Amino acid sequence: MTITLQMASLLAMVAAGIWVGLSVDTYKRIWRHYIRNMWMKGLHDIIFWVLQGVLVFFLLWHVNYGELRFYLLLAMLLGVSMYQTLLKRAYLTMLNALLSCILTLVRILRQACLLLIIRPIVWVASVIWAIIAFIVGGIGKILYHLLRIVFFLPIRWGLLLIWRLLPIKTRQHFVVVAGKCMSFKNTITQLVKKLRK
């Protein structure tokens, strides 16, 4: 391995160490906060570290065809240490500001979607529902009056005609029977009221 290749590998591993520090803090800040299940946290951690290993190895493969030397591991640790001492505070401040901007933008978009899309749709649907209810109610009233005119009034007139055609004694007999039925009904009602007390 030439000196140039060794220097490129060294700088690449320092950059990889800085990248690992950045990605660990990003992962802790964003994903681990929202995962409650311990098994899922463990699974996410395994997937995260496997991805980091694959990315670092891909970088090493791209720079020096995958030759791993001890000083490259030290260079990676140097990159992580540089990130921890020099860049971590500024990066976390920037990350928190970016996340708060994203959350604010999401809230604004959600409110805009609610005001501009969902509420008008609900309003239009309620107006359509009110119009349909009004039409159905009007049709129902019209049908009720038509049925009353077509069926109930002729039956009532027919019964009144039959009542008038009955002899007077028969009508008086029906009136007496109706009176007895009413008095029997009143007696039963009073008895039920007394039993309830």
UniProtKB/TrEMBL annotation:
Keywords: Membrane, Transmembrane, Transmembrane helix
Lineage: Bacteria, Bacillati, Bacillota, Bacilli, Bacillales
InterPro entries: YabQ
Protein name: Spore cortex biosynthesis protein YabQ
Pfam short name (any one): Spore_YabQ
Transmembrane stretches, start-end: 47-63, 70-86, 92-109, 121-140, 146-166
Cell inner membrane is among the record's keywords: no
The organism of origin for this protein: Aureibacillus halotolerans
Domain of life where this protein originates: Bacteria
